[in-house]
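Incident review: delayed structure delivery

Summary: a single-chain prediction request sat in the queue longer than the usual turnaround. Root cause was a stuck worker, restarted by the on-call engineer. No data loss occurred. The affected request and its eventual output are reproduced below so the record is complete for anyone auditing the incident later.

Affected input:
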Amino acid sequence: MLKLLEKRYNILRTIYYKQPIGRRVLANDLEIGERIVRTEINFLKSQSLIDINSSGMTVTKEGEEIIDRLKSFIHEVKGLKEIESILKNKLEIFEVIIVPGNLDEDITVKNELGKAAANYLKNIVQDKDIIALTGGSTVKEVVDNMPKINTLKDAVVVPARGGIGRDVELQANTLVANLASKINSNYKLMHVQDNLSEAALKAVMEEKSIKEVLDMIHKVNILIHGIGIAEVMATRRGIPSEEIAYIEEKKAVAEAFGYYFDMKGNIVHSSPTIGIKRESIRNANKLIAVSGGKKRLKQYWQQKLEIKIVY
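Output delivered after worker restart:
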């Protein structure tokens, strides 16, 4: 009975995130037979949880309510609460929240990660907090899923580091402005390119507007960031090939804030950048790391001395 419930939950959830979706595509995504999918689709339709039309299947309002109500139940059934407790003690951090699924295989998990992190942020953020964000697709999901709040007019949102890349919607500055709009707070932006020379960085840091943001970053209360795969992030940031070769030679597995870590949590390389430094990271009251997928498992372990809250 529990396996059947979990199967129907997964089918309904997948339809919700990929709607409108056809039966064959759904069967392929879930890696189950079309005959099984047809049977379950007929059941969900009979319960008014989905609609079926020429463009594909969509979830009804009743279906959305069922997804929300079943989420915590599935969490318990899969034993995730116990795993959270084990990880919390093992990593010696404040909190662990696990979202079911493997992001490497199911992109919809990223939205669930964002919802979980946004819900936690909603419960801990206070007026006059200074909230720092990094860029990236996972942190974007946190911002996108943050509900409207109108009691944080004295809070300030700032980018955790500089960096102007090609994907404007994933840049820290964009996410900062969007989060500030969601929580009705103030915000500051920092328009600084990644990978400047040290001389150029020193010159930029003398600018008044940059100094103001840096002062706030060093007093941050809440820091939200993703955890990147070292080689992927090095390439994305346009680091020279000789530096990438050095990072690979040192067996770096993770990147955060321009720092590259090996499996033991040692910093093996750092990129020149303007923004938050390790001292400020350690001083942050609440550090929220949001990441997922089996490929990133080892990165959680090496980051254990830094993270207070993990998703």
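Verification: The two ends are 29 Å apart (CA to CA).
Action items: add queue-age alerting; document worker restart procedure.
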